[in-house]
Design goal:
- By secondary structure, the chain is an alpha/beta fold.
- The chain has 5 domains: 170 residues, Immunoglobulin-like; 322 residues, 7-stranded beta/alpha barrel (Alpha-Beta Barrel), CATH 3.20.110; 65 residues; 102 residues, Immunoglobulin-like (Sandwich); 50 residues, no CATH class.
- Helix content is 35%, strand content 27%.
- The protein is built from 19 helices and 30 strands.
- Helix 5 packs across helix 8.
- It is elongated, with a radius of gyration of 40 Å.
- The N and C termini lie far apart (90 Å).
């Protein structure tokens, strides 16, 4: 029984993509139970919305997935015995129903068409039609449309049902007083392509990580089709990643593309190739500007590069600089979208990954200035209600959630490239939206459709077709997000934001980790130090700041390896830029004499001048070798400079020295790695030795005199005051010598502190 049920579930799944992942084209020969070996697919339903006096035609393919031939095969449409489907849960039950059941009705004899014999593994197309009157539909509503395949098997020589396929047929019979206001998000997004590197010329040339975007922008590409299809639907809500607009704009001019495995290297002729998408990018941007200007449409600009709000809320909200980064991304997104499209854009909209919301995500969105949150009924459920409430509802703290219907939205999650998948999704969409409207026909309501960010061209075409048919049917009217968000909220709608513990674990598994987000934010600190020494910081600030936000893009959720590679490339390139200004390594320097010069070289491999730096040279034993104060550094592009540090030596032998680049700002910071080397002192002059030796002799004589005086005083009686005047000056002289001796002994320590 289990195998029989699994095979039959596949029949229904062919017609309802997104409900059962097993949905596939007939070529897959989905295994069927022995009792029902015929796999039935529906390619088209015409018309998709039935009316009185019309004839409904269904086309498709029947495949014999059994091991034996099927004889006298016929295809017919079943007439419903239960009438119109009454609830949305009823639609779901039909979609999930397995084996043929009495509820599927009985075949209409007038619709029966013969296919003859089907050998094992053989497929045959079919076309069946039936007058609407023969389906016994009554008033308007949604009806099950079942295609029945019957025939003879070796085990049973009388005709019987061999397989069934189900879809839905909306029937319109009366005027609809209040069409549902339907907002459809039309996502224009892509994984980040621009990298931090540029080819330096009079005008810096942008660099992309690959040239895949050129294919998507070209005729027939995904983004090309999205703009073409969306441009035919006035009233859409275009939700756009401004980083994509910047990238496409960059492609309208000469650009370069990184060769494989060069992500962290400075861009050069040798590791990049010319980009090929200039013409496609120019035309696409032109078409997009025209499309978003369609009457009734609205542009929503996501934060620049679409940062992963859920990952940040769960793993990075407390990181230093994160709040500022999110706010800057929002501002940059709005400015970029409006500038590139010459259109107004709303920028206070949050769209967490797959529309799932919790309290932490809502709080992070609010901190970023996003007061409108796009979410899904899979996250904020209205399950207890017997109707589908309007989409918008307040969730506290000045925020509004616009809740998309997950059943409707998820229809367009897979790639609806096959005719069977497309037909199944379109008919289910029509059924669901008609049912929603008929729940409370006298009450105006709103509905949000939230497809995936990476909506495919085929799925976009299916969505556009479904929306157009629903509008033609009269039960839906396309409206933009602003209209739906400001509509009165249903007082019965759920306004409770789920707790973090209720966030799906399967989504947490793909989040950017706290360590990853921490590494991204560390980029800012290292970047700030680099910018402080550049004479043209603007050439680096913009590309790196954008690349840092791109490193946190939501798009990496579905392309984790590519995201890791992108982040590693940004970090590696920053390290290479910082390391391009460095001290030249050295090992041993010989100082022949008590004075001399220590040479330290600084190299600048950057393509611009650097300043605000100094070289500090320090001795591990300043009492033996003492060096001059730090020296400032100003280096032109791709040049080297050798600094001369005067040094004084007091002893022969090796002394360790450390050279360190330091920034001159407040506070001064070490820049780059220090260079440690040895100064070998030889041939300190005899004059110096004589002075040192003389000092030692004087110290010894003073100590001897002091000792003799103390012995003499101890031998004299206390009652001889006449000797006191003689001792007095000697005591004073001894104290002076002691003070002098102490000064000499402490001199090396004071000198060390001074240095």
């Amino acid at each position: 029984m289990a195998s029989r049920l699994s095979g039959l579930l596949a029949f229904g799944a062919v017609l309802v993509p997104g409900v059962v992942p097993a949905a596939a084209a007939p070529a897959g020969f989905v295994a069927a139970a022995p009792e029902y070996p015929a796999v039935v697919a529906v390619d088209s339903v015409t018309p998709q919305v039935a009316e009185a006096g019309k004839t409904v035609a269904v086309t498709g393919v029947v495949t014999n997935s059994g091991q034996a031939a099927l004889k006298d095969v016929t295809v017919s449409i079943r007439q419903q015995s239960a009438g119109a489907v009454r609830t949305r849960s009823g639609l779901d039950q039909i979609a999930r129903r397995g084996e043929p059941a009495p509820a599927d009705g009985s075949p209409v004899a007038a619709s029966r068409k013969g296919l003859g014999t089907l050998a094992a593994g053989q497929s045959s197309p079919y076309t069946v039609d039936v007058p609407v009157a023969d389906l016994k539909v009554g008033k308007g509503g949604v009806y099950e449309l079942a295609v029945d395949v019957a025939g003879v098997t070796p085990d049973e020589d009388s005709p019987h049902t061999l397989g069934i396929a189900r879809t839905f047929l909306p029937y319109k019979s009366e005027a609809i007083p209040h069409p549902t206001q339907l907002a459809v998000v039309w996502p224009i997004t892509h994984t980040p392509e621009l990298v931090a590197q540029t080819m330096q010329d009079n005008d810096p040339v942008p660099v992309l990580r690959d040239d895949n975007l050129a294919t998507e922008l070209a005729q027939g590409g995904r983004l090309h089709q999205l703009v073409k299809t969306g441009g035919q639907l006035p009233g859409l809500t275009w939700v756009i990643d401004p980083d994509l607009l910047d990238t496409v704009f960059a492609m309208t001019k000469p650009y370069r593309v990184q060769k494989p495995n060069t992500a962290g290297e400075p861009a050069k002729e040798s590791n990049t190739v010319p980009g090929t998408g200039k013409d496609a990018a120019t035309e696409w941007l032109k078409q997009l500007r025209t499309a978003v200007a369609t009457a009734g449409s609205q542009v929503v600009s996501l934060p620049y590069a679409d940062p992963d709000l859920a990952s940040i809320a769960h793993n990075g909200a407390g990181l230093s600089g994160m709040e500022a980064a999110l706010r800057k991304a929002g501002t940059a997104g709005e400015v970029t979208a409006e500038g590139r499209l010459s259109a107004d854009a709303r920028s206070d909209v949050a769209w967490p990954y797959q529309g799932y919301l919790d309290q932490q995500i809502a709080a992070t969105a609010r901190t970023a200035g996003e007061n409108l949150v796009l979410t899904t009924s899979a996250s904020i459920s209205d399950a207890p209600l017997n109707h589908t409430p309007s989409a918008a509802r307040p969730i506290g703290n000045g925020q509004t959630a616009v809740v998309a219907d997950s059943t409707v939205s998820d229809l367009f999650q897979p790639d609806l490239a096959s005719s069977q998948a497309r037909t199944g999704a379109v008919q289910r969409f029509l059924a669901e939206t008609m049912m929603i409207n008929r729940q409370l026909p006298e009450t105006p309501r709103t509905l949000l459709v939230l497809p995936p960010r990476n909506l495919t061209a085929a799925s976009a075409g299916a969505l556009a077709e479904a929306v157009s048919l629903a509008q033609q049917g009269g039960w839906a009217k396309l409206a933009n997000l602003q209209t739906v968000a400001t509509a009165p909220a249903d007082p019965e709608a759920n306004t409770a934001v789920p707790a973090p513990a209720d966030y799906p674990q399967r989504l947490r598994a793909s989040e950017l980790s706290a360590a990853t987000l921490g590494q991204v934010m560390d980029i800012q600190g290292r970047l700030d130090q680099l910018l402080s020494v550049l004479t043209q910081p603007q050439r680096v600030r913009g590309p790196f700041s954008a690349a840092m936000v791109r490193s946190m893009s939501t798009a990496w959720r579905d392309q984790a390896p590519e995201g890791s590679s992108y982040r590693a490339g940004v970090q590696s390139y920053l390290v290479s830029l910082t390391g391009a200004v460095k001290l030249t390594p050295k090992s041993t320097v010989t100082l022949a004499g008590d004075t001399g010069t220590v040479l330290v070289s600084v190299k600048n491999d950057l393509n611009q001048a650097v300043g605000n730096l100094q070289v500090k040279l320090s001795s591990s034993q300043p009492n033996r070798v003492n060096v001059a104060l730090p020296q400032n550094v100003l280096l032109e592009a791709t040049t080297s400079l050798t600094l001369r540090f005067p040094a004084k030596a007091r002893n022969n032998g090796p002394v360790q020295m450390t050279a360190q680049l330091m920034t001159t700002g407040t506070p001064s910071q070490a820049y780059g790695e220090p260079v440690v080397f040895t100064v070998e002192v030889t041939s300190v002059t005899s004059g110096v030795l004589y002075v040192i030796g003389g000092g030692v002799v004087l110290m010894l004589l003073a100590a001897l005199r002091f000792t003799l005086q103390r012995r003499k005083r101890a031998a004299e009686p206390d009652d001889e005051p006449d000797d006191e005047p003689e001792d007095g000056p000697e005591d004073e002289g001894g104290a002076a010598e002691e003070t002098g001796a102490a000064a000499v002994e402490h001199a090396p320590g004071d000198e060390k502190v001074g240095h």
